[in-house]
Design brief:
The chain is α+β, with helices and mostly antiparallel strands and 227 residues long. It folds into 3 domains: 2-112, Lipoxygenase-1, CATH 2.60.60.20; 114-165, no CATH class; 172-210, no CATH class. It has helices spanning 122-138, 168-187, 200-207; strands spanning 2-10, 21-28, 36-39, 47-54, 61-69, 77-85, 91-100, 104-109, 141-143, 150-152, 213-215, 218-220. The strands form 4 sheets. A 4-stranded antiparallel beta sheet has the order 4-1-6-7, with no helix packed on it. Strands 3-2-5-8 form a 4-stranded antiparallel beta sheet, with no helix packed on it. Strands 9-10 form a two-stranded antiparallel sheet. It is elongated, with a radius of gyration of 25 Å. Pathway: Lipid metabolism. One of its GO terms (cellular component) is cytoplasm. It is found in: Cytoplasm. One of its GO terms (molecular function) is isomerase activity.
Length: 227
Amino acid sequence: MAIYKVTVATGDMAEAGTNNSISITLVGSYGESRQTTVSFLFLPGKERSLSVHCGQDLGPIVLIRLHKWRLFLEDAWFCKDVRVTAPNGTLYRFPCYQWLEGVTTVEVREGSGKKLVDDKLQILKEHRRRELAARQEAYRWKNFAQGWPRCLNVDSIFELDSNIQFSRIRANNFTGFLIFQGASHFLSGFLLRRTSWNSLDEMRTIFSRTQGRDIGGCLVCCPLPFL
């Protein structure tokens, strides 16, 4: 009997937790474990620990499978990482940092950097092939107009996977900033202005308030370079 200690960490951002069921399968170079339930409740920023019992030593753990399924309501889950400690004390780290939505299974490789030529096991070669095919399917390009740069082949950002979309937290911050700036410009008379500017000083009065503000990692600069 080989016992593996597993720790599963949830991201600390808003809504990262879930009340859906999460289970895990360990895949080693000598075999794989049975699917083991981790928990039915994950809270943001928290960790869950469990023991996975195997009939034999699995050898070096090369990847894990995270299984998510729901009984009733869908509740997306953001997995930060998974750590597996083998019976001999070896620690394996599996950085995930992605959303799991719906009924799904996600495979995560061990965190050490590897090139294609380093994949000796067939299961790793197959995992790399499927991952490449999934990325090629997700990132398809189209021509928006003749002479324009190509853009992503979707009609709306909501067609994209949550892991590709702009983060929810930054999107909320950005929306809040736009509301604040819109209110500021409205109160300053910019949005309702029907006449020309009287001077550069008058323009500075309005635009200098937004110059150099940092919103969620994006620097918004005043569109007037001489201010």
